[in-house]
Each structure stands twice: as C-alpha cells, then as structure tokens.
From TrEMBL:
Keyword Repeat: yes
Superkingdom in the source lineage: Eukaryota
Organism this protein belongs to: Trichogramma brassicae
Biological processes annotated in GO: positive regulation of transcription by RNA polymerase II
Protein known as: Uncharacterized protein
SUPFAM superfamilies linked to this entry: Ankyrin repeat
Pfam families, per database record: Ank_2 (PF12796)
Gene3D superfamilies: Ankyrin repeat-containing domain
Molecular-function GO terms, alphabetical: transcription cis-regulatory region binding
Keywords: ANK repeat, Repeat
Length: 441
C-alpha cells in the first residue's frame, strides 16, 4: 500500500495535501460513490489511511479536486477521472466547478484539456460566475502563482471556446452584478482587460469598481504591491484609450491604493539620493534593463516626471515588474522598497497632479490662475496631492470638472499679475498647511 507524506507524518490529511501530490492524484474508492460508481477499484486508490470521504465533504466531484493539482500532472489526473468515473451519466462533460477551479489557479493546460473535453465555460456557478469571471477574479499575486500569464490564459479561453460555445458570455454579471471586465479592473489585470475588450466586452455599461487589495500575507511583498499599482494605472489608461471617461471618484480609488500600500515618498526623505548613494544597489541597478535602451540605474537618475514619461511607459514598467523584482537580489529589502516607491512616485506624478488641479483651485477659492496652480502642485509630493483630493471627497460627483471649468471661465486670469518667487513659496506653504489641517480633521 502506498502512503502519502501526510499519512506518514501522522497528520490529518486534507484534500489539498493528498490531491496535489502528482503520484497520488487518482481516485479514492469512496469518492466514486458521489458520481454513481461501484466501490472496489483498488488500482486507483489514493491511500487507505487517508480520509476517503474528502470529496464528499468538500461537495465536489473528484474531477473538480483533481483540477487543482500540479500543472504537470493535472491533465493525467483528469484523464483518469474522465475515463473511470464520469461515464455516460455526465455525457462526457464536466461541471463548471472543475473548469473554474483550474482557471482560478492558473492551470492553463488543465483548463484547455477540460474545454476540449466539453466543459462549458458559459455555465454559471451558484454565485452566477462563469469561466471568464474565474479568470478575472483570482489574479496571480504571489511568487507561487507567477508561472502563468493572464493574457495567455484569457485568450486561450476565448480560442478554445470559439467553435463550440460562441459567443462567450463576455458581459455576464455575477450575483453581485459584476462583469468579467469590472473584475479585471478591480484586480488590476490590464492584459485580461485588453483581451476582454478585444472580444466584445461592453464598455458603455461599465462601472469603475473599487480596488481589491492583496491579502495580508502578501502585502509585505514589494513586488506584488508595485505590480498592483502599475496594473491599476495601466487599466485606467487602457480604458480611457477605448473610450471610457474617467471621473474624479475613479481616480481617487487608484490614489487610495498608493496610501494603502504606503507608496508615497515623504517630503523629508530624498529617495533618489539614498538609492544612488547605495553602492550595492547602484551596481545591481546598472545591470538591469527596464527596456531595451533603458537601465534601471539610468531611470532613477532622471530628475523630472516629464523626463520619466518620455523614457518609459506604464506598460514598460509593468512588464519589468512582472519579472519578479525579488530575483534581482538587492543587498537590502529597504533598497527594493525605496526603488519601487521612488519610481511609482515619478511615474504617477502627472496623474496625481492632473486630478488634484481642480480640487486645489477650489480649495484656494480661485485666488490663483490655473497655470499658477499647476506650478504650485509641481512642488508637492503625491501624498500632498492625495490629501488635497480627499478634502473634496464629500462633494457629489456632479460637482466635478464640468462645474469647476464653468467657474474658471468666469475668472479673468489675464488681469492677475504673476506672483514672485516669495509669493509662490508662501502659497506652497499655505497649501501644505491646508493639507495638514485636512489630515488632522
């Protein structure tokens, strides 16, 4: 009799410990009863010492549990399930849970196998979620999940379903009213978003969702948070390119992610200088290519956000971070975090400035022309710009750019004298005092 490691160690086995081991993903005798098979197929016994009713306890058929096994063995495991237990009762088709589990865990080979064996991606589960919801609900957010590409996984689902299940229910809503497109944006998956839009996702009825944050156990990983922020910015940019008009509350949802993940550069810390003065970091950064003609060290040396925008895009940086920055083996974790915070601060600066402009102009009661406001905001950090936006958070959506723009037209900016440098510094000081008061209140 073959025993799994959990049995040998005397621990109570779980379906994950047993069924994710490539040697033992077969079929437990007792599990066969759940789909109408006779007991006694000894050759496909997992382990006599293991809990034989784990499939029944989980209320899933063996195929569904096998779908969460390792990538290399999953196809073999499901082949055994199909040949030995499914039979005519299920007409050779697996229920949607098996496909959705495979997609949710990024098992592309398994998912493709299931689709070609007749799994229907349009069938919804108890929560109203189809296979597309499953792809967009569980992004790869940790080192153990970074072996698959969300673009390839989403595209595979469309291609494998093209003949049999055309069209896919790309705009189907789950029990919470969310479409796959909205889930992709909530989980900051720009590549999945692109595939969905290419295959008919409706942007007219799109409602920008609140962000889904990473789990607490992953929040300490700088790479994950960095990629989440870049993914959110890239999603917003791609939506705008496809015709969606971002509003102020949408932008604020992205800004709140920076606050949640602690990705604001402090005014009293010169991150750029600390990074360049770190010999170990500087040496490593010189060998890392962000893109073909730009090294990480050169990117950090850029002084202004405008220069950064000219040299690198959100897509460039997103692709770079997807490589898993932890493999770069910087000398200290602090250097990793400082690098991520500094680059995110520079790359998102214009985003924060553009959305803080009108709230700031209203905050100072139109005392400055907009051009002067832009100059003032250029001297503030993203955290300051964020708190300016928070100061107007309670205003209704209707009190947005259109109303403020109308007020701007009533201001005779041409008659206002340009301020001296001393006056400008005073205005910046007033702005920072207002921001401090906002934080306290």
């Amino acid at each position: 009799m073959v025993k799994c490691q959990a049995c040998e160690n005397g621990h109570e086995p779980s379906q994950h410990k047993c069924l994710m081991c490539s040697k033992y993903v077969h079929i437990i005798d007792e599990c066969s009863k759940s789909i109408g098979q006779e007991e006694g197929s000894g050759e496909k016994r997992l382990c006599n010492e293991c809990d034989k009713s784990i499939c029944c306890k989980a209320r899933r058929r063996p195929a569904a549990l096998a779908a969460i096994g390792p990538q290399m063995s999953a196809g073999f495991a499901i082949h055994i399930v199909l040949e030995s237990t499914v039979g005519d009762r299920h007409h050779g088709r697996l229920g949607p849970n098996s496909l959705q589990l495979a997609l949710a865990h990024g098992l592309m080979i398994t998912a493709e196998f299931l689709l070609r064996r007749g799994a229907d991606p349009n069938i919804a589960n108890a929560s109203g979620e189809t296979a597309l919801h499953a792809v967009c609900k569980f992004p790869s957010r940790g080192p153990s999940a970074w072996y698959y590409n969300e673009y390839d996984l989403t595209l595979m689902l469309f291609e494998c379903s093209r003949d049999r299940y055309k069209p896919l229910r790309v705009n189907a809503r789950n029990s919470k009213g969310k479409t796959p497109l909205e889930l992709a944006v909530a989980n900051h998956m720009p590549d999945a978003l692109e595939v969905l839009l290419d295959h008919g996702a409706d942007i007219a009825g799109f409602v920008y969702p609140a962000a889904n944050y990473v789990d607490d156990e992953l929040e300490w990983i700088i790479d994950v948070k960095w990629r989440e922020l870049l993914g959110a910015l890239l999603c917003a940019k791609r939506l705008a390119k496809r015709g969606y008009e971002l509003i102020w509350s949408d932008a604020l949802k992205i800004m709140k992610m920076f606050a949640r993940y602690g990705f604001f550069e402090k005014s009293d810390v010169d991150l750029q200088r600390s990074l360049l003065d770190n010999e170990g970091f500087a040496s490593r950064a010189k060998s890392l290519l962000v893109k073909e003609d730009l090294r990480l060290h050169d990117l950090i040396q850029l002084q202004r956000p405008e220069e950064v925008d000219e040299r690198v895009t959100y897509q460039d940086m997103f692709d770079f971070v997807k490589q898993d920055i932890s493999r770069f083996e910087f000398d200290k974790v602090g250097a990793q975090e400082a690098c991520a915070v500094y680059i995110c601060e520079m790359m998102s600066k214009r985003f924060f400035q553009s959305w803080a402009l009108y709230p700031f102009w209203k905050l100072i009661h139109c005392r400055l022309p907009l051009e002067m406001c832009e100059t003032v905001l250029a001297n503030l950090k993203n955290e300051d710009l964020y708190h300016i936006c928070l100061a107007t958070q309670d205003q209704s959506r209707d009190d947005s750019k259109k109303d403020v723009t109308a007020s701007v037209m009533n201001c005779d900016n041409n008659k206002r004298p340009r301020e001296s440098e001393d006056q400008m510094n005073k205005t910046v000081a007033i702005a920072r005092y207002t921001i401090t008061e906002t934080k306290i209140n």
